[in-house]
TrEMBL record:
Transmembrane domains' residue ranges: none
Region (Disordered): 165-223
Name of the featured protein: (spotted green pufferfish) hypothetical protein
GO cellular component terms given for this protein: extracellular space
Domain Peptidase M14 per the UniProt entry, residue ranges: 1-326
Gene3D superfamilies: Zn peptidases
InterPro entries tied to this protein: Peptidase_M14, Peptidase_M14_domain
Any one GO molecular function term: zinc ion binding
Biological process, per Gene Ontology: peptide metabolic process; protein processing
Family: Belongs to the peptidase M14 family.
Pfam family, one: Peptidase_M14
Residues in coiled coil: none
């Protein structure tokens, strides 16, 4: 079958650039497919593409009403009921890490398809929008996705939540292999994915082999954030977007807030940058096995209409390249 892919935007209603990029991508794919562009034909016919331009339409309406000049950081950021959708998902990383620290992973507790606690909805408040997104995630076996945000210029990959390693947990928790018991082979091109043995459903790579194959050598040390078992793949996916974006890796572009966490590469592990709990990305990875990243498109969350053509120019190739990674 075809692998399922998604681009989403508008988690925060006042971050309008991603919304417009997805609408432009829709037009581009339809036009180029009709014109028999072979690259676009291969994308459309080989991938099930899901494009959602606005996950927080109420927030967007508030920001739009205020206008580009007067819309502040919080205007439209939250839902009508005051939720930050991106941080409103069940915190499954804590469940996994607690099990790892007790030596229960993977024999007793799996390190994939982590279940939502039965009493979660009784304990925590979940937005209507979040419930709808979770239901959608469960309805399709998504392989890869990205959500567009604003306020910075960077690609952030999981984990988004932070827990530091310590000598005890380093001995007990297992990240050597991530075991998949179900067949999720949705048309991977194995020639271009040498690190995957028999498709998505059968990968059991040693962590050291996986990381070495990506050209990076990581060591798990105390007082460092825990990383996913797929750290190298997440970094590759992040690089695939940042490196083909026209300006994201330019060294002279510092962060919108003065610091420069990327070292000129345009990517960052969210836990080492601005850690949050209950993120959409961590939930997507741990509960549904979908690799999800956040793409921050720039400092101006709500640019003028005259800026959109240049934003499309900067991001078009990066969007296509990222889709091809599926």
């Amino acid at each position: 079958g075809e692998p399922e892919f998604r681009f989403t935007a508008g988690l925060h209603g006042n971050e309008a650039t991603g919304r417009e990029l997805i609408l432009l991508l829709m037009q581009y794919l339809c036009k180029e497919y009709k014109d028999k562009n072979p690259r676009v034909q291969q994308l459309v016919e080989g991938i099930r593409i899901h494009l959602v331009p606005s996950l927080n339409p109420d927030g967007h309406e508030k920001a739009l009403h205020a206008g580009s000049e007067l819309s502040g950081w919080a205007t439209g950021h939250f839902t009508e009921d005051g939720f930050d959708i991106f941080q409103n998902f069940p915190d499954l990383s804590k469940i996994l890490w607690d099990a790892e620290d007790k030596g229960m992973v993977p024999k007793i507790t799996p390190n994939h398809h982590v279940s939502i606690p039965e009493d979660y909805e009784d304990t925590y408040s979940i937005a209507t929008e979040t419930r709808a997104i979770i239901s959608w995630m469960k309805s399709y076996p998504f392989v890869l996705g990205a959500n567009f945000q604003g306020g910075d210029r960077i690609v952030a990959y999981p984990y988004d939540s932070l827990r530091l390693n310590n000598p005890e947990s380093r001995k007990s928790h297992s990240r050597k292999k991530r075991h998949y018991n179900h067949d999720y082979d949705h048309g991977y091109n194995r020639e271009h994915n040498p690190g995957y043995n028999e498709g998505y459903g059968h990968r059991e790579e040693d962590e050291d082999d996986r990381r070495t194959s990506a050209g990076d050598h990581y060591t798990e040390t105390a007082d460092e954030p825990r990383v996913t078992a797929d750290e190298s793949l997440f970094r590759w996916l992040a690089v695939s977007y940042a490196s083909t974006h026209l300006t994201m890796t330019h060294n002279y572009h510092s962060s919108c807030h003065g610091d420069a966490p990327t070292g000129g590469h345009g990517i960052v592990n969210r836990a080492k940058w601005k850690p949050i709990t209950g993120s959409m990305n961590d939930f997507s990875y741990l509960h549904t096995n979908c690799f999800e990243l956040s793409i921050f498109l720039g400092c101006d969350k709500f640019p003028h209409q005259s800026d959109l053509a240049y934003e499309w120019q900067k991001n078009r190739e990066a969007m296509l390249i990222f889709m091809e990674q599926v």
